[in-house]
Amino acid sequence: MSDVSDWWSTAIIDMEPGRIALRGHPIQDLIGNISFPAMIWLMLRGTLPTEPQARLLEAALVSAVDHGPQAPSIATARMAVTCGASLNQAMASAVNLLDDVHGGAGEQAVELYQRIDASGDVAAEISRWQDERGKYLPGFGHRFHKPTDPRAPRLMALVRDAAAAGACDGRFAEIGEAVERHLATARGKPVPMNIDGATAVIYAELGFAAPLARGLFCLSRSVGILAHAWEQTEQGGRNKGPTPPAYRWTYTGG
Amino acid sequence: MSDVSDWWSTAIIDMEPGRIALRGHPIQDLIGNISFPAMIWLMLRGTLPTEPQARLLEAALVSAVDHGPQAPSIATARMAVTCGASLNQAMASAVNLLDDVHGGAGEQAVELYQRIDASGDVAAEISRWQDERGKYLPGFGHRFHKPTDPRAPRLMALVRDAAAAGACDGRFAEIGEAVERHLATARGKPVPMNIDGATAVIYAELGFAAPLARGLFCLSRSVGILAHAWEQTEQGGRNKGPTPPAYRWTYTGG
Amino acid sequence: MSDVSDWWSTAIIDMEPGRIALRGHPIQDLIGNISFPAMIWLMLRGTLPTEPQARLLEAALVSAVDHGPQAPSIATARMAVTCGASLNQAMASAVNLLDDVHGGAGEQAVELYQRIDASGDVAAEISRWQDERGKYLPGFGHRFHKPTDPRAPRLMALVRDAAAAGACDGRFAEIGEAVERHLATARGKPVPMNIDGATAVIYAELGFAAPLARGLFCLSRSVGILAHAWEQTEQGGRNKGPTPPAYRWTYTGG
Amino acid sequence: MSDVSDWWSTAIIDMEPGRIALRGHPIQDLIGNISFPAMIWLMLRGTLPTEPQARLLEAALVSAVDHGPQAPSIATARMAVTCGASLNQAMASAVNLLDDVHGGAGEQAVELYQRIDASGDVAAEISRWQDERGKYLPGFGHRFHKPTDPRAPRLMALVRDAAAAGACDGRFAEIGEAVERHLATARGKPVPMNIDGATAVIYAELGFAAPLARGLFCLSRSVGILAHAWEQTEQGGRNKGPTPPAYRWTYTGG
Known about the structure:
Chain A is mostly helical. The first copy, chain A, has a domain at about 105-210: CATH 1.10.230.10. Helix content of chain A is about 60%, strand content about 5%. Chain A has 13 helices and 5 strands. In chain A, strand 3 (about 20) and strand 4 form a beta hairpin. In chain A, helix 6 crosses helix 13. Chain A is globular, with a radius of gyration of 21 Å. Chain A starts with a helix and ends with a strand. The mean pLDDT of chain A is about 95. Chains A and B meet through strand 1, strand 3, helix 2, helix 3 and helix 4 of A and strand 1, strand 3, helix 2, helix 3 and helix 4 of B. Strand 5 of chain B pairs parallel with strand 1 of chain C. Chains A, B, C, D: Its EC number is 2.3.3.16. Chains A, B, C, D: Keywords: Lyase, Transferase. Chains A, B, C, D: It holds the Pfam family Citrate_synt.
């Protein structure tokens, strides 16, 4: 039988009255001395990043904060506050929607890159991915940003800088670019890397497990969610629906 | 009748295919050039902070990431992943619990400080607060950290540094300390400022609206929530309950 | 110090291996022998309702299941499944929006009725309510259903039948009707009772605490939420936004 | 380009001012005339059930309302209200945890039964299931209720009654019993059907799609979630953690 004191266990935090240590570091030594991205890294990995590693992580976190109220998550956050939800409640409602389809592309792209890294065969891994999960390849192409998602090339330039500075080795950047070339050839037109493909390169370069790509995206997008929830709070409104009241919906019943 | 294109409106983000501007700044100019705390400020306020302002905000964000699995939010995140929840879903479940009692003390402390700032009368405002909302004063005392929450003095030292550097004027720090002195006299023993009282000083100094103190706390604590959800994912487990199975509960029925 | 076995305590359920008793009734004696509304009553109240009481509760639960995808909660549920959310996750996202403004009117109406019941002064209590919480009176008028919400008169007829059958005494029905008459006189036009005002009459007649009016509404509306989430699952779609992609939003920044 | 009025479409509800029709039935004709389980059926299926069908569905809904505060969902609901969450917010937090592992066994059991129904080969389908998803077979065995989950035999007796009354044909009951016999032989000891296996028999007999088994479970368990959230509200408490404060957790760091 498990004893109560063993039921919850963690290597993240140790506490006594008057003392809090995160990953072995007294909290007062961290506050004011490490950056917020370094703290995120420390909490998730157990060690502190180097300066160039923290800067690369920071760029990824900065890049994904918002894509507008047309996104289901942001729309939900804005509607929630008009229903009486508190800010944390609105944030929760929205983050809950960052699931496989809306928030999972970065995680999936890391998985794809890791498969290619392991086997070395871009074409075979893309083919296997599509056989298993369908034609859509996570991290490439964008239904709105034609021809190019403006975030991706900027992030990739920073990866190259970071690789030159020794923060990472650049092999996942090469893999991402190889996927991009493969798709362009296979489809006869450019299918450029999007933000999910580019942040996935960063997270893979920095050694994060694939599921954490989704978690880090949630930390980033939570910023935009909060900003929109707050803006809607100031705009006011009661029970704001998705479309103006006059539109309602099409009834498809008999 | 509202037109559809006016139904959703925002000053946060502007987009065209291939172009994303946040608060008027093209996204590619922000990525790699501003810190994550500066991005948070920009999204919530519309302007960029100075360097010392961003550093003070960063210290507050770093300070509040975790307080262990005994907190209802962290326990919920850890249980959620053992129920099959995705990481974003676990984060949502947990952030939903950062409500008035669990995540609202910072917001309430900012309100209290602002009242004192407006009237100039510490004793009268504390008395009014307690008449309206009960004896518990947000931001002071801690049921676990005796005698002192180690995060508060460190944060207050950084506020003094920031005030010296011109990042803020220090008057909310004085208000917080005045509340602390008042409570010590009134109760005949120290009731030291805790993390919520100290981060509230920072958010008030930096000019954030009170509700955003809760929102910023959610951004910070989401880091710990993610770290614990991920650690539990790696620990495994199915349908983890709050206590070991052998304990169950006390039946109080007839 | 609390002992672990006392930390969680409940009068709702008692269990041993092979035995489950809800409110003192072995579960196998309830299954197939009591109605679902009677089970809801038993769980919330500790006793079994009479047949007429259960039927009146059932009518209220049937009445509130849906008001269409224009409601923020239903829209959220439908968007959630297109983001990859599981059905329970979509339901959670939607129920989270049934807060004070979207799901609280029934609870508020019960409070208003109870105040009137206690003081006997309709005009004074309406005036006090509006002083405290603003002009909007919960449970009366409807922004869409002009002249009359079709659910309210049907529910009120059932309350009268139930009162005649001895299931309740009818005094909250009289209070609701008195509020309706007062508003018609005060505003010089009919402001008819809506579904929240009518279900509040039922919940007050049946002796439910005001906050449970919100809880019961959530049980009822969860049916519509599930139906819409499932219909959207079958319709398909990825990352469905609130409006068609072509509309986006109006940028109000500088 | 999609037109706005087509963006949201549904066969569930049709509305005009003063008129609400659910699945083609004016709401006032349903209120007081059909049971709550019949309404659930109508909303999910589009047609009304027969009386025996509605009664069998009702038994399943009654059976699954609660399994105590040791369940992660119930614990979360109870903790949530002590954090300041509203009742709908507490319900949302809890339903979010009824995911694959905590709330998905019924859905999975329906899938398993449907596979066996399609192929007719119990042993082969069990083997295929275990190859794909691991040893654990949804709907059979119980970690707490030894030897038998008291809900399952009662539900199965009602299925036999319903089959005799023509409400269903009984073939999924036979499949469930065949799985039970197969497991007993294969493991050399009884592995009795549990509540998920028995409600899955009912949902399959009644023709519900497998994912709706999860949805219906959520409707049922929401009753217990609400009852516990309300009981905790009346018990009071602030920031209730999973274990008494004295226990905290085991630190497993270096």
